[in-house]
Amino acid sequence: MAKSGDKKESKSSSEGITFSKSKDFSEWYPQVIQKAELADYSPVKGFMVIRPNAYYIWQKIQDYFNERLKVLNVRNAYFPLLIPESFFKRESEHAHGFQPEVAWIANKNGDENGEGERLAIRPTSETIMYDSYSKWLRSYRDLPLRINQWANIIRWETKTTRLFLRTREFLWQEGHCVYETKEECDKETLNYLQEYARLCKELLALPVLMGMKSEKEKFAGAFYTTTIESIMPDGKSLQCGTSHNLGQGFAKSFGIKPLGRNGGLILPWQNSWGFSTRLIGALVMTHSDDKGLVLPPRVAYNKVVIVPIYNDESKSEVLKAAKKINGDLKDFDSFLDDRESYSPGWKYNEWELKGIPLRIEIGPKDFKNKSVVAVKRNTGEKLTIKISDLKRQVPKILEDIHNELFSSAEKSMNARLKKNDNSKEVIKLVGEGFTVLTNVCGGKDCEDEIRAKAEGLKVLMYPLDQPKSMSAKKCTFCNQQARHSAYVGRSY
Ligand SMILES: [Zn+2]
């Protein structure tokens, strides 16, 4: 993964961020990731090490989502990492879609004599899970079945890999449910997508667009795919989660045929839905700045850092007050940086780089006024707060930070959206970093042509919010009858 930028990197490894978010976005991003100690490159190409600072974010995502799963009656389970080759062949579209990305175990076979079939490392778990489902689901009374798995996945990417955004191994959750009817399946497929949007907003302060993938872009083997995407500051769309109605194809291929209400066997409906550690990449890109990482408070390991400022004379009383404040703010995972060998200014830079949402400075003068200065990481705004009022004020400020991050991200995302129905202008706007709402026919050939018009140009999604009628609308690109309002642009 060594890149040409590495040289610059090593020269400044002890300093802060040297790239500008607005000017050198593609170099700024990995620098923030590495300097904030979120992740590191691995000796194996395309893999990454997730460091504690980022793993904590993932744990908060898991905690949040596990609570939601409980409410939604979804149980967690775990299925094997290795999948027999024959399972892949059962659903041909699925097999075809994943074939180029599957990593095979070269020298181990399925049975102990070494004569069995080849084994794949899971690129997704539909096939291995549905083999079990076919044994478990005996009757309509067993439905709906709702299972989620937290796991790692391997997809042998050939495109350039990027920390959190595109790596050959990543962590994710994959939910797999089975229903008696299409209606239930449709309803819950959309419901899981809405849960994802909710997680993005409530936990990560991340605004998303919700939509449907085109026929060409849908999940391999799915009836249809719904998606949430967020527009990154460089104008590219980042897919943050997908929920697929799988139809009845997998049930047919895997022999999931429980007994129906009328005595005969039924073919149930299925969905699968997932998000991954990619969300961490989205969070970094959206909120961080030229000083480093900006973390929404709900996923910050330390929400507050306390930096004491003193001279020899004032040292003991300032430290005493700082310790007291640290104790008062324990509920916010506060942290007292009382290291002697670093200046306050050095500490400010370090915690700004690492993204701690709120810094509390306490010096002799503040101490005399029985107050502190609180500095918000997201805006740099300074607030003078009475020490006695801290416990009451800090949760409010953290809440404000979350809301400010969300509205600022939403504003910046909306500024990247345009509406246009002229093919040339659409292409020009996408080239300038916009995502454009326009009308398309939905034909696969037309979509291929759209892709050929400019590098990276594609149909991103049909927003869930569609006009009542498309009858008077023409496809922007081929002039045939339009069938969908669609976002087109570039994506990660
Ligand atoms: Zn068309």
Describe the structure in your own words.
This protein has three domains: 51-82 and 128-287, 2-Layer Sandwich (BirA Bifunctional Protein, domain 2), CATH 3.30.930; 297-400, Anticodon-binding domain (Rossmann fold, 3-Layer(aba) Sandwich), CATH 3.40.50.800; 417-489, C-terminal domain of ProRS (Translation Initiation Factor IF3, 2-Layer Sandwich). The protein has helices at residues 6-11, 25-35, 52-71, 85-90, 92-98, 126-136, 182-202, 249-253, 278-287, 315-328, 344-354, 364-368, 390-414, 423-431, 444-453; strands spanning 39-41, 48-50, 75-76, 82-84, 103-109, 118-121, 145-154, 169-179, 209-212, 224-231, 237-247, 269-276, 304-308, 335-336, 358-362, 371-376, 382-386, 417-419, 435-440, 458-463, 484-489. The chain is globular. The protein is 35% helix and 24% strand. The strands form four sheets. An eleven-stranded mixed β-sheet has the order 3-7-8-12-11-10-9-20-21-19-18. A five-stranded mixed β-sheet has the order 14-13-15-16-17, with helices on both faces. Strands 4-6-5 form a three-stranded antiparallel β-sheet. It is an alpha+beta fold. It is built from 15 helices and 21 strands. The model is unreliable at 1-13 (pLDDT under 50). The protein binds zinc ion. Zinc ion (ZN) binds at residues 440-441, 443, 446, 475, 477-478, 480.
